[in-house]
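Running this now, will post back.
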Amino acid sequence: MLRRVRQSLRQVLLLMARRPDLLCGAIVFSVLLILAVKFTCSRAKDVVATARPPVRFFSAEAPVVDLYLGQLDQVERLRSMAEVSFIFFYAPWCAHSMAARQEVQQVAKKLAKQVQFVAVNCWWSQGKCRRQKHFYHYPIIHLFYRRFGPIEYRGPFVAPYIESFTLKVITPLTYLPTRAHLEEFLSSHEPGVVGFFQFNSSPQPPGYITYLSSALQALRRDFHGIVRFGVVTNKHVAEAISLGEDETVYLHRRFNSSLIFPRKKQNFTSEAICNWVFQHHETVLQWLHPPGIKSRLLEAELMKGPALLLFMPHNPLQSEPSAALQQFADIAVRYHSCDHSSTDDSFPFYTSLCCQSVLVPESRTSVCEVCLRLSGPSIPNSSTRCLFPSVSQEGDRFGTYLKCCCLHQLPSPISIKTATSEGCSHYVNSYSPFTQFSACCKTVEPQLNESKAKEEPRLPLTPPPPSVPPSSAPKQEEDGIRGLHCRTNRTLRFYVLDVGLNWPLAERLGASSHKNSSLHQEASTGGNRNHDGSFVAIVNLKYEVHYVLHHDPDATLTESLETFIRNFSSPYSHLQRYLVGEDDRKEGEDEAKHPEEQRHKQRLFITELTTSSFVSSIMDHQKDVLLFYYTQWCGFCSVLNHVLIQLARLLQGNNNITVARVNVARNDLPWEFMVDHVPSILLFPRYSILV
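Update: finished.
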């Protein structure tokens, strides 16, 4: 081996000695190669261009301090100067940050006098924010209440929601000066926490700051602020809910006994109070806000059992809930009220009812019965008359109830002598189950004939016998809904979603495909959506079915919902599974009305099937059906399209077979005809009936 190497070297040296030009060429080529490599490596540092210096992200007119260089130390200085601070962390290239910028500017223009708005560029490589903060997504909003914080906002980046959350941080506690305010605070379907603190001895009692911090801790967990915190400083008001000791935290519960925070067993800290509240509070109605990205929020809730979803236009800045939300909450409360006597013990200082019947001016057969909750330790005696508030106190509200009562009934100018139903039905326009008054409309047999009715068109106010207990008052809720949660195995969970933010989900469940551009302001009048723009569906993820409420225009939302819930809860339900694609049935009916036009249309190679036409097409008595299952997102389905088209052309002259396809992503099919993967091709022979 060594000999061969030596011989090769000798031959090379001899060749170079004979041809010196070859030796010089090799040396020059080697030197040039070394210089090229060295020059390339020396310029490698200049390949990446330096980043451009950042510029302002917010406009100069916006009341937002824009720290576009990522000066995190300036954030601490600005935060120490304001009581409430709003910190907006962004990346200049992020599309979500650009979209949220306009929303934050709208909020800043409204709340600039109360909140310090600061924006920080956390993407600038030379800024402190990029080096100290490690965010995985943008934008991020942090709020600070004095020294407490940060409180991260996890809701949708829409101006009304951001403003509502900021206002909750500004005033985390609701002041309850009187018993009327306390009753209104606790009568809502949302959980309520009341803290009793006397400010006589010191400007701020020791436990008040801790209680305030617990309310801010709750906003960290729930940006919507479902659990509301109130404070009572009057001992007389606190005695209404049996609070006599100072620095006491009271958790109101509607269905079970209310609780008082056990200070002897747990430390009186903000985190302990917040954990205790969220562990023991009752929720009959829950808001869902999917983040709009990949999330398992809906799956986690739907896996708990059947869910009743209400999609409705929602404005978080509205002072009072909408009529649709009030009715939905009223049904949810009655649905979970397993103990019939629990409603009488909800408020120990409101135990009796006084009612007055008033003849509606537009009708001679409809009577509006208005009931008023009275305070007192017991039911009024027979000698005590029920006195309604005077005009100066509550007269305006009382008159409003009389004007709005029985609006859904047509006026009857002719008196009816026959007896009618004595059922009591709520009116919708201004009825609220959370106020002091309750009203219902009754149809009774008039005692006057037409001539007397003209002379005396109005009946006097005649209260019922005061000795009648509240249970004998007109029972407006004896409709099978009360306590249904404990009387059936098919229990429901009640959820509310903003239809403006979750329209794709509502449309996928069966809402009308014609989306209104101004969904928050206008109401839809077609499809499965109600006149108030709401849409209701029951989803049972375990059995992979869902049902849609088809609202009757002649019935109220309350009546439709009650019937919908009862039909679902019955052992032999009459509800039919909703299949996506049934809206095509209307198009098929329109096409059937014009058969002559269909004859002139060119015959398609491949027949497109939908939910409504699927069963009738594959069960053809005269033709075999070759069916292709596909979806728009399937890449392999697109590859097979040309093969299917060629096959359809070959079979074009054969009248005994039909080539069809169905999009299983947009059309729900019966379970017996579903496939477990796409693409799939099935052959359905001609359907024959055995005689």
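The longest strand covers residues 350-359. More later if anyone needs it.
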